[in-house]
TrEMBL record:
Catalytic activity line of the entry: chorismate = isochorismate
Top-tier EC class: isomerase
Domain Chorismate-utilising enzyme C-terminal stretches: 112-374
InterPro entries hit by this protein: ADC_synthase, Anth_synth_I-like, Chorismate_C, IsoChor_synthase
Name of this chain's protein: isochorismate synthase
Keyword list, A-Z: Isomerase
GO molecular function, one term: isochorismate synthase activity
EC number: 5.4.4.2
Organism in which the protein naturally occurs: Nocardiopsis suaedae
Record carries keyword Ligase: no
Keyword Isomerase appears in the UniProt entry: yes
Family: Belongs to the isochorismate synthase family.
Length: 388
């Protein structure tokens, strides 16, 4: 009897790994093997399969933003799978429980400092003599501290119920000095890479406007985004990089010329579905995801210079934010989401992150407002209905 997605969400407890995608829901419990380097995952899966410990093993987990920083990818001892969360009936109202407050919010950096940092990056993009920078994605962090240990399972379930069509996840992370489990939780709308057989798909998002509770304003925001030359340029940089990243592995890569609009509960985005046909259908999805990461949707263009700008300007370590979260099977098939709209939970704190792409024509105040809108995905899952 197949499991229902809602049962797996209900069964999740910290220490386990739950990944719900538009295709399926996976709950991994216990650890057979673990790898801290994505390049070691295919051999790890082969070894587990060859030893007979799991007939159809899966590796699941997270890859950090920084190159060379340790990833957390595990082959669970027990794996339960179900259909997508979007197929599950909406949960009873009483089960969408806000987390107990009160909450203390600490912004790193202060919002005004972020606005100034955007202005500095803009100046470096535009006028600077010989600067090669076209786009930099700048992020900020919001540390929320509650009255007691944060219930990561409830955050996960609240996220899944609000936005069941994206990639909702909770994966166990190596401890960061706080007693108890550390969990990376999020609801990302962005597919970094999926592979099934000989077909790969990536669905970059870039170019954003907040949703509005007023339906007229909401439509205006969407129409304005689709018509914005600045956002289309920002978007095209990402689509080109993704197509270029897939080409060495593919006999053909296709992307429509025009972006589409997609929406989450809190944001509008420009979206392009890029598809490719693999030259070797055994190419592991984790290798393809690592090859695309980080796309200019979360880092910038060119990658190296944008990464250096981020390291200079952002006053915190991104950790797993803007990395990748997903799973891969021994035959290489798998799905990897861009790790955004997420929080790093340990003890009584959650570190929330949100960023946005800065290109020529960006406006610092609008960029700050965009990060506030993106933070709402996690804040609403806590039950905090405030712009921070
Ligand atoms: C960086 C984030 O989002 C990314 C940046 C976007 C943008 O700049 O328009 C849009 C979607 C994401 O690719 C985030 O949510 O923190």
């Amino acid at each position: 009897m197949p499991h229902a997605s809602a049962d797996l969400l209900a069964a999740y407890t910290p220490g386990a790994a739950l990944i719900a995608t538009p295709e399926r829901t996976l709950l991994g419990q216990g650890v057979l093997e673990a790898a801290d380097d994505p390049a070691h995952v295919p051999a790890m899966l082969d070894a587990v399969q060859a030893s007979g410990r799991a007939p159809d093993p899966v590796a699941m987990g997270a890859i950090p933003f920084a190159p060379g920083a340790p990833a957390r990818l595990v082959v669970p001892a027990a794996l339960r799978t179900a259909g997508p969360a979007a197929d599950a009936p909406a949960p009873p109202e009483g089960e969408r429980r806000p987390l107990p407050g009160p909450w203390r919010a600490e912004a790193v950096p202060e919002p005004e400092t972020h606005r100034k940092a955007v202005a500095e990056v803009l100046a470096a993009l535009g006028g600077g003599a010989g600067t090669p920078l076209d786009k930099v994605v700048l992020a900020r962090c919001l540390r929320m501290t509650g009255p007691g240990p944060v219930d990561a399972g409830q955050v996960l379930r609240n996220l899944a119920w609000r936005d069941p069509s994206g990639f909702t996840f909770a994966v166990d992370l190596p401890p960061r000095g706080v007693p108890g489990p550390r969990t990376f939780v999020g609801a990302s709308p962005e597919l970094l890479l999926s592979k099934r057989g000989g077909t790969v798909v990536s669905n970059p998002l870039a170019g954003s406007r907040p949703r509005s509770a007023d339906p007229t304003k909401d439509q205006q925001n969407a129409v304005e985004l689709l018509a914005s030359a600045k956002d289309r340029r920002e978007h095209a940089l990402v689509v080109d990089a993704v197509a270029d990243g897939l080409r060495p592995y593919c006999t053909g890569v296709e992307a429509p010329a025009e972006p589409e609009l997609v929406r989450t509960a809190t944001m509008w985005h420009l979206s392009t579905r890029v598809t490719g046909t693999l030259a070797d259908r055994r190419t592991p999805s984790v290798e393809l995801a690592a090859a695309l990461h980080p796309t200019p949707a979360v880092c910038g263009t060119p990658t190296g210079a944008a990464r250096a700008a981020i390291a200079e300007v952002e006053p915190f370590d991104r950790g797993f934010y803007t990395g990748a979260v997903g799973y891969t099977r021994a035959d290489g098939d798998g799905e990897w989401a861009v790790a955004i709209r997420c929080a790093d939970i340990a003890g009584d704190t959650l570190d929330l992150f949100a960023g946005g792409g800065i290109v020529d024509g960006s406006d610092p105040a609008e960029e700050l407002a965009e990060t506030s809108a993106k933070l709402r995905t996690l804040l609403l899952a806590l039950g905090v209905n405030q712009r921070l």
